[in-house]
Amino acid sequence: MAKFLLKRLVMMVVTMLCASFLVFAVCEFTPGSVARKSLGPYATQQQVDLLSEKLKANDPLVVRYGRWLGVLVGAIPDPLQDPDTGLNFSDPRGAQYFGNFGYSTLNKLPVNDVIWDRLGNTAILAGLAFLFIVPLSILFGILSGLKEGGKLDRVLSVICITFTSIPEFASSVFLVTLFVILWPILPGTSPLNSDGGWPIGYQLILPVAVLVIYDFGYVARMIRVSMIGVMERPYIRTAILKGMSTRQVVLRHALRNAMIAPFTVLLLQINFLISGVVVTELVFAYPGFGRLILDASLFGDIATLEAATMITVAIAVTTQLLGDLGYMLLDPRIRVK
C-alpha cells in the first residue's frame, strides 16, 4: 500500500508540473508582453519596462517557468514585491513562502487573499449539492434498476433525462421566475451577506437546487445501468432463491457491487461542482471560484488564472487517487501494484 501511494503521489506531482507548464506557456504566448499582463492595462510604460527588466522577460521560456515555479514553492522571492519596481505590491506573508501565487491585478491583492475565500464559498455550494445528489442518484438508480422496463423505471428515466437535458441557465431562470417573481419566498441573488435582509441559508437554496436538478439525473442513469448488470449475476439469483428479501439482496449484495462503476462518475462531479459551476454562480451573483475564474479571464488576470488552474488540477488528481482507494474498498479483489 505504501509503495502504491508513493507511486500515485509521484504521478500527481508530475501531472501538476506538466499542467502548470502548459498553462504558463499559454499565458506567456498570448498577445501582449508579460509585464503588461502582470500589471494590468492601466500601468504606465515606465512601469512595464521596469518590470520587464526585473522579470528578465527576454530569457527562454523554460528559464522563466523555472523562476515562476521557484516563486510558487518559496525558493526565490517574488520580483513583483521588489521595492525597486515602485509597484507597491505587498503580501502580509512576505515575498518568499510556499504557495506564493503572485499578485492579482484584478483585485489589487495577493492571489492568496482572494482565491481561497472564493474556493471556500464554492466548496460550501458544492458540498450542499453533493449531499443531495448522492442519495437522490442512488435512490433513483436502484429503483430503476430493480424493475428494468417497468412503469416506475420509465417514469424515473424520463425525469432523469429531462432534468439532465435542461441547461443550468434555463433552470435558474425558471426557478427565479417561480420562487422570486411569482411567489417571492426566496432571494434572487446569493451574495452571501445579509445586507438584503435574507439569511444566508435562504440565499443558498436556489443555487443548490439548480446544481442538483442538473447533475443528479446523469449519475442516477449510470447507477441504473450498473444495477441492472449486477441484478443479473448468478449470486443475486442464488440469494433470491434462498428466500432473502429484495431489501436484503440490494443492501447486502447488489448495492456495493453496483457502485463500483458509478464511483468514478460520482467523484467526477466534485471537479464539476468546484470549477464548472460558472453559469450558476454568475446567474445568482454568487462570489465563488468559478465566477472568479471567469472574471480573471475577461480581465486578463494571469496570476489568478494560473493559481486557479493549479488548484483545479490538484482537485482532479486528488479525486482520482480517492477513486483508486475507493475501488479497493468496494471490491477486495482489486489489488495494488
Automatic annotation (TrEMBL):
InterPro entries linked: BPD_transp_1_N, MetI-like, MetI-like_sf
PANTHER family recorded: INNER MEMBRANE ABC TRANSPORTER, OLIGOPEPTIDE TRANSPORT SYSTEM PERMEASE PROTEIN APPB
Family assignment from sequence similarity: Belongs to the binding-protein-dependent transport system permease family.
Family annotation (SUPFAM superfamilies): MetI-like
Span of the signal peptide: 1-25
Superkingdom of the organism of origin: Bacteria
Swiss-Prot/TrEMBL GO biological process terms: transmembrane transport
Name assigned to this protein: ABC-type dipeptide/oligopeptide/nickel transport systems, permease component
Alphabetized CDD domains for the sequence: TM_PBP2 (cd06261)
Topology with respect to the bilayer: Multi-pass membrane protein
Gene Ontology, cellular component aspect: plasma membrane
Transmembrane segments: 123-143, 155-186, 198-217, 260-287, 307-330
